[in-house]
Fold this sequence. Notes:
The complex is a heterodimer of chains A (161) and B (497). By secondary structure, chain A is an all-alpha fold.
Amino acid sequence: MARRGDLLIGLITLVGGLVLFALARPFGPMPGQNYGAGTLPRLVAVLAVMVGGALVFKATRPALTGSGATVAEPVRPVDRAGILRLAASFGLMVGHLLLLRPLGFVPASVLLVGGIAMLLGRRWWEAALLAILSTLAIRWVFVQWLSVPLPRTDWLILPGT
Amino acid sequence: MVLTQALELVLTPQVLLVMLASGAFGLFVGAIPGLTATMATALLVPVTFFMEPVPAIAAIVTAAAMAIFAGDLPGALLRIPGTPASAAYVEDSWRMTRSGHAADALGALLVFSVIGGVLGTLVLIFLSSVLAEVALKFSSFEYFWLVVLGLSCAIFVAPGSALKGLVSLCVGLAAATVGLDNPAGQSRFTFGNVDLMAGVPFIPALIGLFAAAEVFRAMLAPTRLARAERPALRGIFSRQWTYLRRYPVQVLRGSATGTVIGALPGAGADIAAWISYAISKRFSRTPERFGQGHPEGLVEAGASNNAAVSGAWIPALVFGIPGDSITAIVIGVLYIKGMNPGPTVFLMQPQLIYALFIVFLLANLLMLPLGWIAIQMGTRLLAVPQSLLMPVILLFCIVGSFAITNSLFGVVVMLVFGVIGFAMEEADIPIAPAILGLVLGPMLEKNFITSMIKSDGSMLAFFERPIAAGLGVVAILFWLVPLIRMMLQRGRQVTDG
């Protein structure tokens, strides 16, 4: 039985290898040598093409040899709520990244932790309490103890700022 | 006489208190995803300026040993390995915790790390000069094959098919090509971004592949959010007697492998742990249980992990050549304190060298009580509902990634690799080969190109030196034997059919 998942992975790997090979073409060898910056990327690209090709062959061999129909694996039921949670969590992380400098570490992180906790089913006040306490504690550990220069919030006066 | 002087230098309240404090510090730093043993060591250096040589070195050695072990704790409790070496056995340790055997898993990681560290230290004390001579014989050819062996081990021991393991390796090696760090010194795939010139930092990538991906998986699957029962921890140590009686060969083999590989400058615990895990699986009577929550791999690779830390001191003390980033930092501290590592220190300041050996032994033994406390505290986390724990872990990981580069670049890398890791796991592609490819890719490239230049393009040169030939044959057999076995099996099936 062929696996459509393997077919897709194989195709992606094969195409990825070809793209890497194309991107590595501009790199010439070092002066007086046959090797240079393009050597490893080209080797990885060749490996990826071979592996991708092998996966594609393995996935389609039963169909090619006529020894079995191409059958998809049993489809997992799509949990729409789960997918929305996943998208929202990704959005929260991207938002956190974008807001770290403008807002500073504490406000941005409170929003992130609170948002993730609410997505995981906590009530808003539990999420808010968790977000504030954990953010302040983590900030204290990293800024006060480990001297990590986390993005500051000018309008928020905290110890160590 | 020298030994007595050394004991007098070490067994003072100041040194012992410093070891206790730095051990606790090392455990704390090592247990947080994103913070590393190297970071713990580097943070202690300014503090050691105000200390005498022996307490200064004692602080750093103890912190490093604790931090290396502590990297196993988040792996077992949360499936977030603290180091690439811990990733070798994270599946087994995590599954053991999940199935209610946390005491066995954590106890094995602790006890066999201590045993590996002590055995490695004994080798350091009695055989350092011999091993150092062997280490000096390693050229680019030997290192090339060692890296190939390490990467091959990662592919074959990772769960799932070898082809998917290779896909994962390609992802890691492709990421390793980014940056300026290549023999030609040319900027590769940086697209004009200054941060990318230093390459893809592996700690944020590791955090992303495991931790961020775990958060994404929790979002998708509500059943994962059930409160995890706090594991029973009675008999953390008692069970280990059983393992010691059952797996004595594995303990010795892992310690020996770790010490020898750790003694090679630049090789390190990452390669040692993976090779040990692969050897354990290869020679096990129950290889099919590896990756399903089996302690045998934990015993051997856990011992190897800490033995490699001791092994890294061999070239450092004998020749002044750092075995890894931690010993590189410590060599600097040794110079500041007036101890010049190398052959002369054994003649001019033997009492200090013996004091160092005693510190190494004590640091590994101190891991037992401190590790026990860390395990007790760490497992309390599992009683916290995951809906409360996971957001906090995520924030720790983000800040840890930020701390690596002191910029948002680390966080971006973490996020990107989180998406990649999530997609890989959904496609049943193992993650660990990607991490090892990222970590060992530059070493593979450097040694391959150096070797090809030295040999004028001749591949036969990779087999001309005896150690290189031996490693090369092992690496090739590693790939050929399963293929030959598969073909023989197919042939038998055709004959029977």
